[in-house]
Write a structure and sequence with these properties.
- One of its GO terms (biological process) is lipid biosynthetic process.
- The active site is at residue 377.
- By secondary structure, this protein is an alpha/beta fold.
- It folds into 2 domains: 6-82, 2-Layer Sandwich (Nonspecific Lipid-transfer Protein, Chain A); 99-420, Rossmann fold.
- The protein has helices spanning 6-12, 43-51, 54-62, 72-82, 95-108, 111-122, 126-132, 151-165, 183-192, 203-215, 255-265, 291-298, 308-317, 329-344, 347-358, 360-383, 417-420, and strands at residues 19-22, 28-29, 36-40, 66-69, 173-177, 195-200, 222-226, 238-244, 266-279, 321-327, 386-394.
- A 7-stranded mixed beta sheet has the order 7-6-5-8-9-11-10, with helices on both faces.
- The longest helix has 24 residues, at 360-383.
- The termini are far apart.
């Protein structure tokens, strides 16, 4: 007798793209000629589909218990239709779960665990990331200053946007926390003439940036350290600080330490930029429908999200003043789709790289996970389940008449004209990555 699949069939009818489902018992649901096909080898996947647990379905795909044929863009359209509830508002919002999250966060974000988590993600393979990132290897939200920009142009626009917000000047001491493959650090040194320091926990990224510094002749002006932000000690605070894509890895329980560390490392009157992913909901630290668990298991172990309002509270408690906040959420959706499209266009080469690095079983799982992660996150930013905020902060110097405006207590001009004014003549010549 054919099992009752009525609830699943009803949900599939709501999908904007036709889906063909091959069930574990060999039965089929949906049109035979559908461009999107899911073959289920595990009965648990049927229940996950029927209940809208799309993150669980994603895990089944990674593990090889569900196989999909078709484009990831169509898969995301179908996933959205299968959801039964907003992933922002689910069990993550209960008070007891929030309390549990805080205690778990505290245990998960030791210096040793954070180093392991960062290396799990960022040390997958430099060659793999190079396939779908821009030439600077900027692994964070781009800034599409004009609609016709390609990804590489938009990433350069983002780097320059942050440099302008920070009012970088030649000779200033600049720190980039979580410096990745060095895009921000190198851009600031070559275009704004700063004395730059980057810190990272990724061994691969550290080695790559060291090589870039040597090749570009920046040894006397730029350095990168393999170090946790909490352990960085300096004899003189920095004039300017950026933290791009680092905030998401800190953990809720460590936020007071994170922002107080930025405050300690920043000179009075200086500027700091926090560019990071924020939660779409006020109370949730992750996404429901199994999405948060998927990302934690396969992509970013230890990652936690805060609503921007919570981040602003922690900033204020640390003795920093928020002077400008910009939400560029749609820019990240477009960035992620650009990454996804670039990866999809080079799947054979991506698999070759990952299998050579990790073996066939692990390599295939990593590739399946990243295909779902990039497209799924693009969907999340489109839907507002998550956001991206650039928060510009100062450390007030307590001197009422300092800065460009009386009472500023910093060098921030308290207007936005400077961001959009072309750089003055005499800036360091630009060069290609």
């Amino acid at each position: 007798m054919r099992p009752p699949y009525g609830s699943l069939e009803a949900r599939l009818e709501k999908s904007p793209v036709p889906i063909a489902i091959v069930l574990p018992d060999g039965d089929r649901i949906g049109p035979a000629d559908a461009s999107l096909r899911l073959t289920l080898h595990d009965p648990a996947a049927v229940a996950a589909l029927a209940t809208g647990a799309i993150g669980t379905v994603g895990a089944e795909i990674v593990e090889g218990r569900v196989r999909f044929e078709g484009s990831v863009r169509e898969l995301m359209l179908a996933a959205q239709a299968l959801l039964q509830a907003d992933p922002v508002h689910d069990e993550h919002t209960t008070w007891w779960r929030q309390a549990l999250v805080w205690y778990v966060s505290r245990a998960r974000h030791t210096t040793a665990r954070d180093a392991e988590n960062i290396q799990f993600h960022y040390d997958v393979s430099d060659d793999f990331y190079a396939l779908w990132l821009d030439p600077w290897r900027v692994y964070s939200c781009a800034y599409y200053r004009t609609p016709d920009m390609a990804l590489a142009q938009a990433q350069e626009a983002k780097l320059d946007h942050i440099c302008r917000k920070l009012r970088l000047q030649p000779g200033e001491r600049f720190l980039d926390v979580g410096s990745g493959w060095g895009g921000m650090l190198l851009w600031a040194a070559e275009h704004y003439g700063v004395q730059g320091t980057g810190i990272t926990l990724s061994r691969n990224q550290y080695a790559y940036v060291q090589k870039c510094i040597e090749e570009r002749g920046l040894g006397g002006r730029v350095q990168v350290l393999l170090q946790d932000y909490r352990e960085l000690q300096v004899s003189e605070p920095f004039d300017k600080i950026s933290s791009i894509g680092m905030f998401e890895h800190v953990g809720r329980a460590q936020m007071p330490t994170y922002f107080s560390t930025l405050q300690r490392l920043l000179k009075p009157g200086g500027l700091a930029m926090n560019h990071g992913i924020t939660a779409g909901g006020v109370d949730n630290t992750g996404l429901g429908a199994g999405l948060g668990e998927f990302i934690d298991r396969y992509i970013f172990p230890g990652g936690e999200l805060l609503h921007v309002s919570v981040a602003l509270q922690e900033i204020a408690r640390a003795g920093l003043e928020m002077v400008d906040t910009e939400n560029i959420r749609p820019h990240y959706a477009r960035t992620l789709w650009a990454w996804s499209d670039a990866l999809e266009a080079q799947l054979p080469r991506a698999r070759e790289i990952l299998v050579a690095q990790h073996g066939e079983d692990r390599g295939d799982k990593v590739l399946r996970a990243y295909r779902l992660y990039l497209a799924g996150c693009a969907l999340g930013f489109e839907q507002g389940w998550v956001a991206l905020h650039q928060i510009l902060m100062t450390r007030p110097d307590g001197l009422p008449d300092s800065g460009p405006m009386a009472g500023a207590q910093s060098e921030y001009p308290f207007n936005r004209e400077y961001i959009y004014t072309p750089p003055q003549a005499g800036a360091t010549p630009r060069r290609q990555p």
